[in-house]
Design a protein that fits this description.
Layout lengths: L5 H19 L13 E8 L4 E9 L2 E9 L8 H14 L11 H18 L3 H6 L10 E10 L3 H12 L4 E4 L16 E2 L6 H5 L4 H11 L6 H20 L4 E6 L9 E4 L5 H13 L3 E4 L3 E8 L2 E8 L5 E12 L8 H7 L21 H8 L4 E2 L4 E7 L18 E3 L13 H9 L6 E5 L17 H6 L4 E3 L2 H8 L3 H15 L21 E13 L2 E3 L5 E3 L5 E7 L4 E2 L10 H18 L3
Parallel strand pairs: 4-5, 4-12, 5-9, 12-21, 19-22
Antiparallel strand pairs: 1-2, 2-3, 6-8, 7-8, 10-11, 11-12, 13-19, 14-18, 15-16, 16-18, 17-18, 20-21
Helix pairs in contact: 2-3, 5-9, 5-16, 7-8, 8-16, 14-15
The site of adenosine-5'-diphosphate (ADP) has 26 residues, from α5 and β10.
Length: about 600
């Protein structure tokens, strides 16, 4: 057994490039006589540290591949960790697609296996070019009570509830993994436990949650839907707890959340929800998940939705008859640039220059399928941007804020430009007006006392600094120099902000949110840009999660929940309200479809 240390691996990659390019021109197939059976190991860098693999070669074939050690985020990386090794063995190839949302982990696994196979004498370039495609499977017809389209938060809430109510359920998911956008979110779930110690301490109530949601959406949301949301949010938290999910004791204010009523899961990002859902799936009968299966259209008979036609992984047709009905839970359309451009009226441009926080499957399929069944749409023009995108990818990854109380935003000149406790649309509109539409999040060691803490994305601040995605300096002057902003401006912005925190002056942008001053080095900065985050519009539903048609009538057999629906959040969704929406309306859809209500 050989253990490749990291620096050795780097060296090897260099050597590998040279030797492969030398032999590629004359030989593209592996000379089997050069393959040596044995067990090989390699370690490379992943997303959150090192990823180690072990490869067993027997009879000159890849017999076993296993990831032996890693620190990658659970659930988000699960598929890359388990499926990629299995596929390598199954197809005897390295021509395997990376798992979207876990590209870094996928590449780390593939790279480490390639190192092992090179060492064993395989021609890895030939293996990378080998086809991993499968033969087309037979068409299928299935019968079930309930079909749920989409294995994100809303889909699972509906599917689990329907199953708890006695229905047989099939969940269709077009991606090779569960989670959708929900798993990428910070996981914060707004809910008021009316009369509890926490609610009393924060002077919070269901009524205040209602008012802030309604007003925060510019009074464009449907009051009845908002009532349903806020009144059932806390029982949604309790329901998740009943499935085994854990939340931190204290509530907090999430970006654009307006009030400290967000419940933070103990597990990183949105993974806690899916650990609980997956566990339910694994331990219950009559609830099945079909991955890599894309719903294409609803089957409508006499104006009633009675099933779904889908395409399986190998391109085969799958027809599912749903005795009770179908729940649409396909999420939003933030990754569909054409739809963004078609419906946007509020922002100057939502073309390809603006990236998105969303997973690639957020393409508005459910809206198209709903339209074909005569569903009404509402609020399609309301598209939410965040001021918090990673400049390369648009993702929320690399966001260094820990809560919202302690950080400020400065533009490339080092000046503040907005109340950082404002609504998301207000902050993003202000950012777009700044030079180059970029900003720096600035905070200090109050939020990172040891310098090893993780952010909401399960990333260590020290790693972000190492990777050049965040900057760290002992003084503000040095930080300004590092990030290329005017030092006097930055020092002045911070000292004025600190006077506001000390209660000496009013904040010039009307900020009320405060906790600690920014005065304890080391100081941190990270670059952020506007990014498309949430599409508030979608299928029109009533408080029973029934989809309504263009005349306002219920479409029998069709239910919807989560981001695919519209009318709840109005013109702007409060931070932390998406998870509440998903769980509350997912559960209602599940209950009603199970009882054919
Ligand atoms: P929500 O927050 O509303 O639950 P998510 O984005 O978390 O939305 O989840 C929606 C899920 O639906 C994603 O996993 C996405 O891949 C899946 N999905 C979208 N379109 C289809 C489709 N046509 N067929 C099957 N699954 C789909």
């Amino acid at each position: 057994m050989r253990i490749f240390k990291k620096f050795f691996v780097v060296l090897l990659v260099g050597l590998l490039t040279v030797s492969l390019s030398a032999c590629n021109s004359s030989n593209t197939t592996t000379d089997s006589s050069s393959i040596k059976d044995g067990t090989y190991t390699a370690t490379v860098d992943g997303h959150n540290g090192e990823v180690s693999v072990e490869v067993v070669v027997a009879d000159q074939k890849i017999e076993k591949v296993e990831v032996t050690e890693h620190g990658e985020t659970p659930i988000v990386s699960d598929l890359a960790i388990s499926e990629i090794p299995a596929k390598i063995v199954e197809t005897q190839s390295l021509g395997i697609d990376t798992v979207s949302g876990a590209t870094v982990t996928s590449n780390a696994v593939l790279e480490a296996v390639a190192l092992c196979l090179t060492e064993a004498g395989f021609d890895v370039e030939a293996l990378k070019n080998a086809s991993a495609s499968k033969d087309k499977e037979d068409d299928l017809v299935l019968d079930v009570d309930v079909v749920v389209i989409g294995a994100g938060g809303a889909g699972f809430a509906a599917a689990v509830t329907a199953n708890q109510e006695g229905a047989s359920v099939i969940i269709l998911e077009k991606q090779p993994k569960i989670g959708g956008n929900t798993i990428l979110s910070g996981g914060a779930m707004n809910a008021v436990d009316e009369g509890s110690e926490t609610a009393l301490k924060n002077k919070d109530s269901v009524e205040l949650h209602y008012t802030q949601t309604f007003e925060g959406g510019s009074e464009k949301g449907n009051p009845e839907l908002i009532r349903t949301l806020v009144e059932n949010a806390y029982s949604g938290v309790e329901w998740m707890q009943s499935l085994g999910m854990e939340f931190e004791e204290e509530t907090f204010t999430v970006l654009g959340g307006m009030w400290p009523r967000a419940h933070k899961p103990v597990e990183p990002v949105g993974t806690g929800f899916f650990i609980a859902f997956q566990n339910y799936l694994d331990t219950h009968e009559n609830i099945d998940l079909m991955l890599n299966t894309k719903a294409e259209e609803l089957i409508v008979e006499d104006n009633k939705v009675v099933g779904v036609i889908a395409t399986g992984e190998t391109g085969n047709k799958i027809t599912i008859n749903a005795a009770n009905g179908v729940v649409m839970a396909t999420g939003g359309f933030s990754q569909n640039i054409e739809m963004r451009q078609e419906y946007n009226t509020l922002w100057k441009d939502l073309g390809e220059n603006i990236k998105s926080t969303n997973h690639p499957g957020a393409t508005g399929d459910g809206i198209k399928m709903g339209l074909a069944a005569n569903a009404a749409l509402v609020g399609m023009e309301y598209i939410q941007l965040l001021p918090m995108g990673d400049p390369e990818t648009g993702s929320l990854s690399g966001n260094i804020e820990q809560g919202v109380e302690n950080r400020i935003f400065v533009n490339k000149e080092g000046n503040r430009f907005v109340d950082e406790g404002e609504r998301r649309d207000v902050m993003t509109a202000a950012l777009i007006e700044q030079p180059d539409s970029i900003m720096w999040t600035i905070l200090d060691s109050h939020d990172y006392p040891t310098g090893e803490e993780i952010n909401n994305f399960n990333e260590k601040i020290s790693d972000l600094v190492k990777e050049g995605r965040a900057y760290k300096a002992d003084t503000l002057e040095e930080l300004a120099k590092l990030i290329g902003v005017d030092s006097d401006n930055l020092v002045n912005a911070v000292s004025e902000y600190n006077k506001f925190v000390a209660g000496e002056i009013e904040d010039e942008f009307g900020r009320t949110l405060k906790q600690d001053p920014i005065d304890q080095g080391p100081y941190y900065a990270a670059l952020r840009v506007p990014t498309v985050h949430h599409t508030m519009g979608g299928l029109m539903i009533d408080t029973g999660a029934h989809v309504l048609d263009t005349d306002g009538n219920i479409i029998p057999g069709l239910y919807a929940a989560g981001e695919v629906t519209g009318g709840i959040h109005g013109a702007n969704r409060l931070g932390g309200n998406a998870l509440s929406d998903i769980i509350v309306f997912g559960r209602i859809a599940g209950q009603n479809v199970a009882s054919k209500k």
